[in-house]
Amino acid sequence: MAQMMSTYINTTFEVKTKYVDIEKERDEARSHCQGNFYQGDLARLEDITNSRQGSIRVWDGNVYKLSPPITIKGCTNDTGLTKHKIPRMKLWKDAAAQCQALCNTSTFAIRDTDCHCLSDSITPADDSHCLPMLARTPAQNSKNTEAKTVFQTVTLEISDVPALNKCIAANGLNPCNFELRNCQDRLQMECKLGTSARTVWAEAAYGCNSAKSFPSPVRDNCPPDSSVWFGGFRDLQYSPGNM
């Protein structure tokens, strides 16, 4: 049960957003918006983020799915073939997943609320220009105003059983391959410059930042006879629409 934000058309044909202080299940909330407002529906996440006051749990009108596997690649100053705006998000994984959903390219980059759809042939920049992203909100950077953090859709076959596992690790078998694991498992993270402490995926990624390095990207091979995290993950992404 949660409250709701509704979008609707007012008498001057403007699109408005209104908070409704009634708790309902999601389908009932959508029906309430559609039945009580002219061209009403549940508001999009962007409209909720821009208008909500305080910490209130509300339904939104977006369709959510788990993203295809994503790997962090590094840093670039390149500008995207196309560029999209994404909501300002607290976690860089969320921002990367939403950028992936908007791009028709396998390589993409984020900086603050900018999502850049890139060609696969990017010009690398020094990773240190983007490292603050791992410790702050998505793509914030203090060294280079053009730096963008680059991600890529993983094309390798990776086991997704059970389907809720979201973080990518080498499985320690020979021949070595990758698998999706529970992000709360405790492993070392393979960083571009060594390894981080043995801990859960998110903290291990931050550990790479402390060592002035990004997590290693998922690649065609991995260290034999080892179980380690890599910089690959899945996350929820959304598209506006009805369920």
SSE blueprint and pairings:
Elements: E1 2-9, E2 15-24, H1 26-36, E3 41-42, H2 45-51, E4 58-59, E5 62-66, E6 70-76, E7 82-85, H3 92-102, E8 107-111, E9 114-118, H4 132-135, E10 148-153, E11 167-170, E12 178-181, E13 188-191, E14 194-195, H5 201-210, E15 228-233, E16 236-240
Parallel strand pairs: 1-4, 13-15
Antiparallel strand pairs: 1-2, 1-3, 5-16, 6-10, 6-15, 7-9, 8-9, 8-10, 11-12, 11-15, 13-14
Describe the structure.
The chain is built from five helices and 16 strands. By secondary structure, the protein is α+β, with helices and mostly antiparallel strands. The protein folds into two domains: 59 residues, no CATH class; 177 residues, no CATH class. The strands form three sheets. Strands 6, 7, 8, 9, 10, 11, 12, 13, 14 and 15 form a ten-stranded mixed β-sheet that branches. Strands 1, 2, 3 and 4 form a four-stranded mixed β-sheet that branches. The chain has a two-stranded antiparallel ribbon with strand order 5-16. It is globular. The mean pLDDT is 79.
